[in-house]
Design a protein that fits this description.
Shape: globular
Strand content: under 5%
Largest sheet: none
Structural class: mainly alpha
Order of helices and strands: HHHHHHHHHHHHH
Radius of gyration: 24 Å
Number of strands: 0
Length: 335
């Protein structure tokens, strides 16, 4: 009987693990939706403090989110698509200009990198490669729109029933510890919401500043697309801001040396301003985590779930650290 029950247990565990693995992409969508809902919940509570009922506050936030998405789809997406095509069509000319630079020509004679760049640009669909991944063409675009639609729908459902979900989760704890669990859970949710909204604010600042820079140095033809790239990559912890800055600076440098130098100097200065002024002020009330743990958490999250894992790793690590401080260390101190 013991062996039979043990065999059934192993089979059940194996089946559950296979189901969990097969549902991996769906679980990622659910987790991302929960994080976004937690990020929008502070805005709902802000409207509640201004006298709006919870249901009306949720409705206002939902209308605002849908309005922003509609504005993005109908106003910005065509502009971004046109500018991406313009970048793709201008890339061969930029490579020709680079070949006329004496220093670049000397480096090319040693390493032959311009020939590889030219073959990459001229062979195949460069624009599709430039867009890349979920922003590519064909089925990738359909998959991206489908995932975005699912995330939006789940986020709206989670936001509308956020209090109900929290109460249901807290009710699973024993009655003697439910109050403590509720307080810790609220602190974790507030930290996650602060991090999500703070990351959006920081990325928006990077995108707007890049837009102003590009219009100022005569890169208005590609300004919206490149500013959008900076805003998206800036959300990625640690390396995202550098990736966006390198992409924009390289395109500006290919257009002209002067604009490339100006863009490089601007992003070096802006990243210092963002790291030491904007980020501490925005994130001071959301996540409390040492710098080394931030790096470790982002690396672990990226290795497990890619970019999504890196985005979710920092608030998750902050929540685990808070639980260790409030539960484990406090229990150890009482012994």
């Amino acid at each position: 009987m013991l062996g039979l029950l043990g065999g059934f247990g192993l089979v059940t565990a194996y089946a559950a693990s296979r189901i969990f693995i097969s549902l991996g992409s769906t679980l990622v969508l659910i987790v991302v939706s929960l994080f976004i809902a937690a990020g929008l919940d502070p805005l709902v509570r802000f409207l509640e403090r201004r006298g709006l009922p919870r249901s009306l506050a949720v409705l206002v936030v939902i209308i605002g989110v849908l309005g922003f998405l509609a504005l993005f789809l109908f106003a910005l997406v065509p502009v971004i698509a046109d500018q991406v095509r313009a970048i793709g069509s201008s890339a061969p000319d930029w490579l020709d200009r680079l070949q006329h630079n004496r220093r670049i020509r000397d480096l090319d004679e040693q390493y032959g990198f311009i020939e590889h760049l030219q073959s990459f640009v001229t062979n195949g669909n460069f624009v599709g490669r430039l867009a890349g991944g979920a922003l590519g063409v064909g089925l990738a675009v359909l998959n991206a729109f489908f995932n975005t639609f699912i995330i939006v729908v789940l986020t709206l459902y989670f936001l509308g029933s956020f209090h109900t979900l929290k109460k249901a989760a807290y009710s699973l704890a024993p009655a003697s510890r439910r109050d403590r669990v509720s307080k810790l859970g609220d602190r974790i949710i507030e930290g996650i919401g602060g991090y999500v909204s703070g990351a959006f604010i920081i990325a928006l600042c990077a995108g707007v500043s890049s837009l102003i820079l590009l219009f100022s140095i005569g890169m208005s033809r590609y300004a919206v697309a490149l500013a959008f790239v900076v805003m998206v990559t800036d959300v990625i912890p640690m390396i995202g801001a550098t990736i966006g800055a390198v992409i924009v600076t390289a395109i500006c440098l290919a257009n002209s040396v002067q604009t490339g130098v100006i863009a490089g100097i601007f992003y070096i200065a802006y990243q210092q301003f963002e790291n030491y002024v904007i980020y501490p002020r925005v994130m001071s009330r959301s996540v409390e985590i040492p710098g080394v743990l931030t790096v470790i958490a982002a690396l672990v999250g990226a290795s497990l779930m890619g970019v999504v894992g890196a985005l979710l790793a920092i608030p998750t690590a902050a929540a685990i650290l808070m639980l260790v401080r409030e539960v484990f260390i406090r229990a150890q101190d009482e012994r």
